[in-house]
Amino acid sequence: MLSFPEILVILLVAVIVLGPKRLPETARKLGRWVGLCKQFAEEFKQQLMTMDQMANQALNHATQDLDAIKPEEVAAYEQIETELVNTMRAAYEAPPMRTPDDDLAQPPVPGGLPPEPSSTISSDAAASLAEQTLPPKEVVASSNSAEPPVTKATPEVAPSKGEEAQA
């Protein structure tokens, strides 16, 4: 709080700055503003007290409700909670269940399609496959000149059924 000499100094400065004509009007305006600030502060204080009372009532009501719960009900709740936690742990630790779609999600076989069983391939198809997959055989032509021998590539043909029988 301000002391009496401080208030006199403030009034003297106000008279010098504002002059005797504007001082009463400014004092009235200042008084209104101070009154409004006090009124707002009082309303705010009342609202806080009301909220505090409501919170205390809710807390008291909740405490009474908790006191009304029987020990058997608490034990049953704790048992249910324990069973739920154990079930959740077991589900988390268990391996995932297989579904029919899991077989479709297998990674592809390296090199493309899986090999077909040998019993389903005919000998003609095997010979045709051999022609396509065997590397060409190199034939060296001999020459009497000083040039290096010429290499010609000819495809190696697998023997057919008839040629196998002759051999």
Protein described:
The chain is mostly helical and 167 residues long. It has a domain at 4-93. The chain has five helices and two strands. It starts with a helix and ends with a helix.
Give the overall silhouette. Answer: elongated
Oligomerization state: single chain
The helix content is: 55-70%
* Straight-line distance between termini: 128 Å
Largest sheet: 2 strands, antiparallel
Low-confidence stretches: none
Mean pLDDT: 76
Our Rg estimate from Cα atoms comes to 52 Å
Strand content: 5-15%
Task: Write down the secondary-structure element order.
Answer: HHHHEEH
How many helices? The count is 5
Give the beta-strand count. 2
Provide the spatial order of strands within the biggest beta sheet.
1-2
Coarse structural class: mainly alpha
Task: Please name the defining characteristics of this protein.
mainly alpha; about 170 residues; elongated; 5 helices; two-stranded antiparallel ribbon; single chain
What is shown here, in short?
The chain is mostly helical and 167 residues long. It contains five helices and two strands.
Task: Set down the secondary structure blueprint.
Blueprint: H1 4-68, H2 71-93, H3 100-104, H4 123-133, E1 137-141, E2 150-154, H5 161-166
Antiparallel strand pairs: 1-2
